[in-house]
């Protein structure tokens, strides 16, 4: 939640429209939602506003570096999908015409450089929670290997699948789900649900990588199907078909990767994010003084 109120201030002898902004988030850890909160706070501060972040939990050993060193006037959500969820959940507010603004999370594209070599590796990065459906990546990769083994050539011999992400031994689901995934990988012979937004697809595209994602939720708003990656039905068969296209045509991955990078730079950079967020906040200010 973001709340904004007026604060007096002057810059270079000219009165500056500076706001006092409070951002509330329950757990300031290292997930995609937390990255959004940190970027929002930093960008608002860069635009001259007085920003305070309130949280019930902040572990200095497990947080983003930037975090170490009443009634909201504005409601922002991270995707159109989340906006629809907001309308269904807060029906009273929706009936009164209160609709949240959409502010897509961003990535710092400058930290990602063009790859110097190409080796086929499918990467799945998520928290180890069942709702993230990591089983899909493992089953799809296993199916891909079974299909590719019947085709000529050896394009898949060096292909790998890497499953990584947020893991906390204190969380029972993390521990249990990791063991379930290990058992599935063994059973499939590869050992050796809706996302409201998802920052990983943006980071992958910023790193010149095409993305394979489910054709629902946030990825529909970030991945351009057959341009920056593939949007598929959430089944191992459909995912393996998309993976096979990249196996059979390595140049396709390079072309899509370049298009993906350009897409993120244009629409999801931190500058675009900061400018849009600042405009939302200033609109609140102007509405209050009118």
UniProtKB/TrEMBL annotation:
Glycosyl transferase family domain span: 192-262
EC number, UniProt record: 2.4.1.132, 2.4.1.257
SUPFAM superfamilies, alphabetized: UDP-Glycosyltransferase/glycogen phosphorylase
Primary localization: endoplasmic reticulum
This protein's pathway: Protein modification; protein glycosylation
Coiled coil location: none
Presence of the UniProt keyword Glycosyltransferase in the record: yes
Catalytic reaction equation(s): a beta-D-Man-(1->4)-beta-D-GlcNAc-(1->4)-alpha-D-GlcNAc-diphospho-di-trans,poly-cis-dolichol + GDP-alpha-D-mannose = an alpha-D-Man-(1->3)-beta-D-Man-(1->4)-beta-D-GlcNAc-(1->4)-alpha-D-GlcNAc-diphospho-di-trans,poly-cis-dolichol + GDP + H(+); an alpha-D-Man-(1->3)-beta-D-Man-(1->4)-beta-D-GlcNAc-(1->4)-alpha-D-GlcNAc-diphospho-di-trans,poly-cis-dolichol + GDP-alpha-D-mannose = an alpha-D-Man-(1->3)-[alpha-D-Man-(1->6)]-beta-D-Man-(1->4)-beta-D-GlcNAc-(1->4)-alpha-D-GlcNAc-diphospho-di-trans,poly-cis-dolichol + GDP + H(+)
Keyword terms, alphabetized: Glycosyltransferase, Transferase
Transferase keyword on record: yes
Enzyme class, broadest EC rank: transferase
Superkingdom of origin organism: Eukaryota
Protein topology in the membrane: Single-pass membrane protein
Location(s) in or outside the cell: Endoplasmic reticulum membrane
Similarity comment: family membership: Belongs to the glycosyltransferase group 1 family.
Functional description taken from the UniProt entry: Mannosylates Man(2)GlcNAc(2)-dolichol diphosphate and Man(1)GlcNAc(2)-dolichol diphosphate to form Man(3)GlcNAc(2)-dolichol diphosphate.
Stated name of the protein: Alpha-1,3/1,6-mannosyltransferase ALG2
Species: Eleusine coracana subsp. coracana
Gene field: gb14536
């Amino acid at each position: 939640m973001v709340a904004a109120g007026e604060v007096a201030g002057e810059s270079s002898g000219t009165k500056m429209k500076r706001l006092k902004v409070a951002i509330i988030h329950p757990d300031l850890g290292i997930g995609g939602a937390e990255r959004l909160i940190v970027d929002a706070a930093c960008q608002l501060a860069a635009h001259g506003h007085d920003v305070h972040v309130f949280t019930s939990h902040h572990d200095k050993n497990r947080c983003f570096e930037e975090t170490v060193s009443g009634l909201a006037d504005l409601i922002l959500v991270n995707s159109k999908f989340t906006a629809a969820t907001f309308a269904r959940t807060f029906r009273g507010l929706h009936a009164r015409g209160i609709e949240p603004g959409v502010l897509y999370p961003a990535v710092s594209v400058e930290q990602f450089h063009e790859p110097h070599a190409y080796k086929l590796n499918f990467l799945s990065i998520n928290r180890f929670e069942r709702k993230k459906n990591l089983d899909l990546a493992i089953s799809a990769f296993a199916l891909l290997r079974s299909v590719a083994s019947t085709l000529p050539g050896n394009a898949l011999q060096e292909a790998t699948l890497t499953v990584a992400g947020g893991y906390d031994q204190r969380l029972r689901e993390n521990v249990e789900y990791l063991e379930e995934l290990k058992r599935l990988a063994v059973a499939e012979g590869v050992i050796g649900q809706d996302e409201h937004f998802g920052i990983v697809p943006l980071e992958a595209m910023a790193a010149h990588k095409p993305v394979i994602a489910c054709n629902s939720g946030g990825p529909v708003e970030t991945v351009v199907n057959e341009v920056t990656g593939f949007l598929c039905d959430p089944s191992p068969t459909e995912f393996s078909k998309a993976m096979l296209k990249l196996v059979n045509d390595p140049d396709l991955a390079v072309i899509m990767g370049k298009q993906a990078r350009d897409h993120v730079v244009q629409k999801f950079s931190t500058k675009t994010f900061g400018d849009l967020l600042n405009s939302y906040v200033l609109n609140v200010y102007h509405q209050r003084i009118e």
